[in-house]
Design brief:
Thioredoxin_domain; 5-stranded mixed sheet; single chain; oxidoreductase; 7 helices; 3-stranded antiparallel sheet
């Protein structure tokens, strides 16, 4: 069964580079980002883990927990973390799930149920395990992004998407293309003009179905 937007994400127990977790307990009512990788000690993934580590303060500002996953073991993760920290020039403060049996990869529909890791495997054997999942405080899946192995992820875009999700959820609005914090938002079509004026004050009507407004200053 495919994991779809607004589904409650699977719960599971796993070993990580920072000890055992039960996923729903680890979420702890916060926003979370689970980002996955096909193998430790690979070049693109090392740059990505470094990028996530350097954004530690940004995740905290957004009350968001971050966790990685790779289909290698804890010992490999702990060794790889040293390379990541050296490359990034900062500590790697988030855990990495050890998914040698592919349990989590299959629960999150990253690999088919009959997938397995052959002897002498390469990253190509688990290439689809390269996804970003953004999860809400309600444990529901809010967004996914899937990348090929040879294209590094843009974690600035992950941050931007997280900001948009948090704003849309907290303010009952939508966000337009390329939106960033502080810019005008879109009033949902379910909100009447009268209610929109009460909530947002003046707004711009471009089409009856497209109305822009500034968020009230808190």
């Amino acid at each position: 069964m495919s994991l779809r937007i607004n589904d409650v994400v699977p719960d599971f127990e796993a070993e990580t580079s920072q000890g055992p977790i039960r996923f729903h307990e680890w979420l702890d009512g916060k926003w979370a980002i689970l980002f996955s990788h096909p193998k430790d000690f690979t070049p693109v993934c090392t740059t990505e883990f470094g990028a996530v580590a350097k954004l530690s303060d940004e995740w905290k500002k957004r009350n968001t927990k971050v966790i990685g996953i790779s289909v290698d073991g804890v010992a490999e993760h702990q060794g790889w973390v040293k390379d990541i920290a050296s490359f990034a020039g900062c500590d790697v403060g988030f855990p990495i799930i050890a998914d040698e049996d592919l349990k989590v990869a299959k629960l999150f529909d990253m690999l088919p149920a009959d997938a397995y890791l052959p002897d002498g495997r390469t990253p190509a054997d688990s290439a689809t395990v390269r996804v970003v999942f953004i999860i809400g405080p309600d444990k529901q899946l809010k967004l996914t992004m899937t990348y090929p192995m040879n294209v590094g992820r843009n974690f600035g875009e992950v941050l931007r998407a997280l900001d948009a999700l948090q704003t849309a959820s907290g303010e009952n609005v939508a966000t337009p293309a390329d939106w960033n914090v502080g810019e005008d938002v879109i009033i949902p079509t379910s909100v009447s003009d009268e209610d929109a004026k009460t909530r947002y004050g003046e707004f711009e009507t471009i089409f009856p179905y497209l109305r822009r407004a500034k968020l009230p200053t808190k």
